[in-house]
């Protein structure tokens, strides 16, 4: 079946079709400086060929996700997923022949390159039974196949360049037709650009880029100046899928639009100069300054505190033998909350804190605290996780899942479980350290590894470095956040 894609008109107003089957076999390179209309050209190609061939778009700026509303493309935000997820998506895309837009918006350059390499390798490594024809459009290809080293790690650069080389050199046999667009040919690796047999060259100004474009189009050096004079949206086309001789093409209109657009002039604000000056030069908001600590002599000596407790503590005869259990539970919860809110409690051992717990209970009228040391450690762990009531009441399911853990690890587990059940961001290592009663982040990492080894946690870190934790036995997952 022959399918012609209408890309626009030539200088005489005649349509310029692109043979889609020939394009799948011979690949396409689009070049043009920023503002020349490359993204418009790619959008025209995608819109006109939608429904005829599977389309896969690697989109660094998230401009092509709008295709999903009109043409049903699945938009995948890479920042929300891990590398393992991206590789799995790529395999499923080839199997089910789904048209997708992989948006890399929100990732740093290194993260974009790593994600693109993983995704392209996943497409390339699909089983032979899934080698269906697909257009693989890569915008800003110079980011993923740079001609030289940059600020990213060499390992990442090589992985990305290798994936792009595979796409353009070996992808045809696997049904993958590369369509790459770049702002500058000089910044694009030559072994990637050389594999394209079809070219659409837009406006460019630098001599080195004009010369390379002219060489690819088979133009003489003196004719290269024509590339500098091209208007926005006008391209010189050549190739077996377009025409055997260079032809000037004005790209046709599109039905969808990008989320971002070229800057437009807007009127400046008309506020009086005095108001602007007052606004810009207004003093900064006063910063909060913590109150100065009281002088050393203001603290009571330990002997004085003990004497005061002895005088204020009620005797066993003064306590009602039948106190309301809810009242007792409320007092215990208040005492635990006070201990957790004491910043120094993190540095004290459970045995020392239990003594503090007994003293505080006597101060509020509980002559016989209702918790032994083991029960106190359990309740303290829950309180550090923000659960000040009896965890056996509302958290029985989570406690049952954590039976394999020692009582002192219950705090970090419940902290994560509480965030997962309530849909909160994943706790940071610092928060987990506080719930564990330590200030060592290295100890926290070993703790998390231990809990994962028990099958209680599954930690996932996406390409932007954000962490989320799933508790498989409960089916709860935290929101992703910086760890």
From TrEMBL:
InterPro entries: ATPase_Atu1862_pred (IPR014588), HerA-like (IPR008571), HerA_central (IPR002789), P-loop_NTPase (IPR027417)
Transmembrane segments: none
Domain Helicase HerA central, first and last residues per copy: 9-74
PANTHER family on file: HELICASE MJ1565-RELATED
Protein name, as recorded: Helicase HerA central domain-containing protein
Organism: Sphingomonas trueperi
């Amino acid at each position: 079946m022959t399918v012609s894609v209408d890309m626009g008109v030539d200088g005489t107003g005649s349509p310029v079709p692109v043979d889609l089957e020939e394009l799948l076999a011979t690949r396409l390179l689009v070049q043009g400086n920023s503002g020349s209309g490359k993204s418009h050209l790619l959008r025209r190609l995608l819109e006109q060929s939608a429904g005829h061939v599977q389309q896969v778009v690697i989109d660094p700026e998230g401009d092509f996700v709008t295709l999903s509303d009109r043409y049903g493309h699945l938009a995948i935000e890479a920042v929300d997923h891990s590398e393992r997820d991206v590789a799995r998506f790529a395999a499923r895309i080839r199997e089910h022949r789904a048209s997708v837009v992989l948006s890399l918006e929100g990732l740093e350059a290194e993260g974009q390159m790593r994600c693109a390499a993983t995704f392209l390798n996943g497409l390339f490594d699909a089983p032979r039974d899934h080698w269906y024809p697909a257009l693989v459009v890569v915008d800003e290809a110079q980011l993923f196949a740079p001609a030289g080293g940059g600020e990213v790690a060499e390992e990442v650069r090589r992985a990305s360049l290798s994936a792009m080389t595979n796409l353009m050199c070996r992808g045809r046999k696997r049904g993958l037709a590369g369509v790459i667009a770049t702002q500058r040919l000089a910044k694009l690796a030559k072994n990637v650009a050389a594999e394209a047999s079809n070219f659409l060259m837009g406006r460019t100004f630098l001599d080195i880029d004009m010369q390379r474009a002219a060489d690819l189009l088979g133009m003489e050096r003196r004719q290269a100046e024509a590339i500098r004079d091209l208007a926005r949206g006008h391209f010189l086309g050549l190739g077996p899928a377009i025409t055997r001789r260079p032809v000037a093409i004005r790209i046709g209109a599109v039905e969808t639009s990008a989320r971002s657009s070229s800057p437009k002039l807007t009127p400046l604000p008309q506020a009086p100069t005095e108001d602007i000056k007052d606004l810009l030069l207004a003093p900064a908001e006063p910063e909060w300054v913590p109150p100065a600590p009281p002088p050393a002599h203001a603290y009571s000596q330990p002997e004085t505190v003990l004497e005061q407790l002895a005088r204020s503590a009620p005797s066993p005869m003064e306590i009602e033998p039948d106190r309301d259990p809810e009242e007792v539970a409320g007092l215990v919860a208040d005492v635990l909350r006070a201990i957790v809110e004491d910043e120094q409690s993190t540095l004290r051992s459970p045995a020392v804190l239990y003594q503090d717990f007994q003293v505080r209970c006597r101060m509020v009228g509980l002559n016989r605290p209702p918790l032994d040391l083991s029960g106190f450690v359990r309740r303290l762990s829950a309180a550090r996780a923000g659960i000040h009531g009896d965890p056996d009441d509302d958290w029985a399911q989570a406690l049952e899942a954590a039976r394999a853990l020692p009582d002192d690890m219950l705090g970090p587990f419940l902290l994560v479980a509480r965030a997962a059940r309530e849909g909160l961001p994943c706790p940071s290592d610092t928060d987990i350290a506080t719930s564990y009663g330590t200030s060592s982040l290295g100890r926290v990492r070993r703790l998390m590894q231990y809990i994962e080894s028990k099958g209680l946690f599954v930690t996932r870190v996406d390409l932007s470095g954000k962490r989320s934790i799933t508790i498989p036995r409960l089916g709860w997952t935290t929101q992703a956040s910086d760890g």
